[in-house]
Amino acid sequence: MPHDASGDAIRATLARYCQYLDDGRFDDWTALFAEDCEFRVMGLHLVGRDALRGFIEPAQSEEMRGRHLISEPLIEVDGNRATVTTDYAFVGRDLAVQSSGRYHDVLACGDDGEWRFLEREIVFVGDQPADRSDRG
């Protein structure tokens, strides 16, 4: 099986997402997203890095942080874009699983060779992803 450099780079982006968030590195975390990104979670639909940055720090105060654990992602690369689904669990400081579900992502590889999130939707166990079939 040939080595998949795109897959490795995408996996690294997914790992950075978790580690930066868990460590409170919000500027680094926000830089993982495209300028015009879309982010959906808990009924919120945020557009753009500025909206994302304004949301994340209050939502991830130090006492709320734990560890985001992710499964092996399913990655489909088409040129400089990729669709990715990854199961996750969030473990709080009390070591209890506080949330689990699936990330539904679209990433793009920029001119700098970095893969960034164009879209991320977080779907909790028992919920369904948004119907985006009208997006062509």
Which key features would you list for this structure?
single chain, 136 residues, alpha+beta, globular
Question: Would you kindly provide a written description of the structure presented here, covering whatever features stand out?
Answer:
This protein has a single domain (5-126), classed as Roll (Nuclear Transport Factor 2, Chain: A). The chain is built from three helices and seven strands, in the order ααββαβββββ. The chain has helices at residues 5-22, 26-30, 49-59, and strands at 33-41, 44-47, 67-70, 74-78, 81-91, 97-109, 115-124. The longest helix is centred in the first third of the chain and has 18 residues, at 5-22. A hairpin with a 2-residue loop joins strand 1 and strand 2 (44-47). The protein is globular and about 40 Å long. Strands 1, 2, 3, 4, 5, 6 and 7 form a seven-stranded mixed β-sheet that branches. It is 25% helix and 41% strand. It starts with a helix and ends in a 12-residue tail after the last strand. The chain has 136 residues and is α+β, with helices and mostly antiparallel strands.
